[in-house]
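Q: Here's a chain of 267 amino acids. Please give me its 3D structure as tokens.
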Amino acid sequence: MAKPIRIAVVGAGGRMGKEVVKLVLQDADLELVSAVGLSDSGTDAGTLVALPPCGIPVTSDLEMALVESKPDVMVDFTNPQSAYGNTTLAVKYGVRPVIGTTGFTPEQIEDLDKQCKSRGIGGLIAPNFSIGAILMMKFAAQAAKYLPHVEIIETHGDQKLDAPSGTSIKTAEMIAANREELRQGNPKEEEIIEGARGAYYNGFRIHSVRLPGVFAQQEVIFGGYGQSLKIRHDSYERAGYMPGVKMAIEKVMGYTGMIYGFDHFIE
């Protein structure tokens, strides 16, 4: 029987981090060896997620955790301000990073790819780990070949920091790769209220809705002569991302370099 994959969870006290801790503690193929968080230092990681104590206290020192616990994979759901430094530190110690934080620049991703290759390890940066959301992106990219007139409407809770979401940006990138830039709408259109038409990307628009009581939704709307096509994905709870997180953990064990986008794992 293969040994469990050793996991360090960074951002363990966050909403997504707690779900990852639960996943690791309840999966025989995975082993939690460290949990890192700024506000829960000293708390048992099992207790933190309402499970029996596991003997792994949360620490605030990521470097010490990586050195002492020697994980195979670091899963990071923190914030754009921390994630790049955390990822660089993980690669330095030969730990494969699986990053669920958005905000990386293309230059940072390219740099991290070089770092991973120099260490002979794999890594993943993914705006979304939902298998359903990835299928939505792939279907939208395929549809764009035939229906180039498109707009994206993404809806999240009112406390989400970034707009547009990382998922909608990744969707837009995949759509843009399959269509020529086409500026949509009336060429003489005028916004009576600034921003009414949404954010401009490669000729089409992305609309970000932020409301309390909403978790995560995205709809991609295509228009054509006498027809429309709507591709929509709804997420209802964070646990829905965990099958994708586990798949990512397993995949990064078998390749070299930094991959951007979970869609590369879904054929």
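Q: Can you summarize the key feature?
A: The two ends are 28 Å apart (CA to CA).
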